[in-house]
Amino acid sequence: MSPYKGHSGLKRILNATGYSLDGLSAAYRGEAAFRQLVLLAVVLIPLAFCFEVSRGERALMIAVCLLALIVELFNSAIEAVVDRISLERHPLSKDAKDMGSAAQFVALLLIGAVWGTILFG
Questions:
Q1: CATH for 32-120, among 1.10.287.3610, 1.10.3210.10, 1.10.10.200, 3.40.50.300?
Q2: Which residues cross the membrane (predicted)?
């Protein structure tokens, strides 16, 4: 067993929940893109309930909004790690950050594609 591992059972779940909330808080405080995506989700998720679509379609409309938030969390984590390693410009650092940005771009395209297909079919 690793000496770096924490507790098990309920204590581990409580700790993990705290770390997750800390991560959401850090992303919201420190990342304008995350705040913008939260705002987009706050608008789009309730809007999904205004359309006469099937439950599955509504679930998909909501899921892609949440997926964009997840992708932004990963993108922000990649940027933080790259910046932690070094602030100097390096081609690999640029590639890592650009790929994270590209992942978010694809997630946003997915929102548009899913919503557009469901609403305008």
A1: 1.10.287.3610
A2: 33-53, 60-82, 102-120
Predicted model pTM:
0.90
pLDDT digits (tens, 9 = 90+) for 45-80: 999 999 999 999 999 999 999 999 999 999 999 999
Nearest 5°: CA angle at 29, between 25 and 34?
Answer: 85
Active-site hit among 64, 72, 75, 93: 72
Nearest-angstrom CA–CA distance, 69 and 73 = 6
52 carries an active-site annotation: no
52 is known to lie in a ligand binding site: no
Q: Is 83 annotated as a binding residue?
A: no
